[in-house]
Amino acid sequence: DGEVSMGGRRPLLGGLESSAVSDEISTCNDTEFGFDLDSGPAGGSLREKSSAASAPSSASGSLWKLNLGDETNLRTFQRFTDCNEAFRGVLSLKQPSVREAYEKVEETKEALHRALHEAIVNVPGNLVEILVYNAVDNDLSLKAKPKNLRSLRAKDRKGKEKTNRYLSPNISTSMREYLEATQAAEVVVADGLYELSAELAVSMQTLRAVIVMHEILGSVHHHCVAGRARGWTLPQLSEDGTLDVQLTPYWLHVDAVSSRVQLPLGGGAIATGPNMSGKSTLMRALGSTALLGNCGFLAPAVGTIPAYAQVVFLAAEGDRPGEGISAFGQEAMLSSTLLQRACGRTLALLDEFGRGTEPLAAKACIGALVEELSRRGSHFVVATHLHDFVDLPLSLPPTSPPLAKWRMGILNTEDRHQNGVPQWTYALEEGVCHDSYAWVALRRFGWTEGALERFFRLLQQGSRQSREETIRSSPLAIPPPHGPPLDDAVVPTHSDSSKPRVAGSAASSWLSLISPSPSFSSSSSSDPSPPP
Q: pLDDT tens-digit profile of 329-354?
């Protein structure tokens, strides 16, 4: 209709003549909508009308051989004409009024070209970029006066003369006639679109269905072509709810390292690894495989996947000061949404959760999420640099599978270190990583050797101090948080009945998470003395 801009009409109607989907469209309309594209009401079939709307113009204009002095001047002239002929290709030249309007545009454009040639060849000196196109005033002018021709000062859209911009009388007249012809052509094309819209209105439901089907088939076609070119396959849905796939990063075409990911029904895993070893890449590859496979699309994996209802990728996104949300507040808000919706058909991928808070609270948050997701039978993978998280005394349901421990591999040959830098395999393997190799990233991205020496010194001091504080500190000195009792909390036991023991409360679960001492381990059979 008339409210749509000229640029928006062409893609809408132009896609209907695609030969790649014409047979599918015909079949769809014949069987589903009871309408034949090759027959229709008086005035032509729907196929003819849509083709008339999308047929390109055959009058592309004369190929003038006249010299404009320089290639840049020719490109300037072409920019001017392109901006004033946006109506081309919208309607077919089979309509007499459209054909006449196009012919008038071509005639006046050629006259303008000749007038420019006549003026430019009479300009003395360098002719490079002598022709200027002003998009605001929508006109052409010369930077210098042509010799042997009467020259005029070019004027802007308000009628004010421009500085050092000139025209010949012939250029001024030809340009005015050309602009009048393009404006008339726009009116003719708009009127033609009104008429076409009125004719197609009786078949609007069918036309809308054809356009939607064309977009769907085109998207599926492009997906299949790209997926097959990369060697993607269609994962099978598992019948027992297990996940077992050999996957590769979806954005790598060649030299991609694959990893096998296996999760039993209701199982989860903790993935650790050095910086830049591929943890986040693995998480994205797993998420894309689950999403594409459940949508029936090709995926960068081979194997079986469960029929998920939700695929959640939870990663830090920074803060939002304008809304009063800190970085950790953003993580808390996203994870709360996960807890509200997680179920037995959820795949939750937590990438370095807790970066917005201190490490102890971060480990407690991750542990709480792991326990809750295990209780609901969700599949989950947690990628973290908090390597000692695996030592937390988590309270998992008795029926839940053991928590898998993954790490990103490092070469175990004499080539393990090259020039002092460890070599990653980028492949997943069983185990726990105990070194983040943060210095590798620091050196790679520009840290000086002096700064790195300070890093190593403080790292060693911090590690020694952390061990000493662990021995000195007592978790009983930390006040428990306020809150309702937790029925399924882990109760830290102690064989000596004279020692304090908090049972069935939030404090017991809190102490079980923060305690570094074996005296608070439920699996301890001895009676060690309490920490000083």
A: 888 888 999 999 999 999 999 998 88
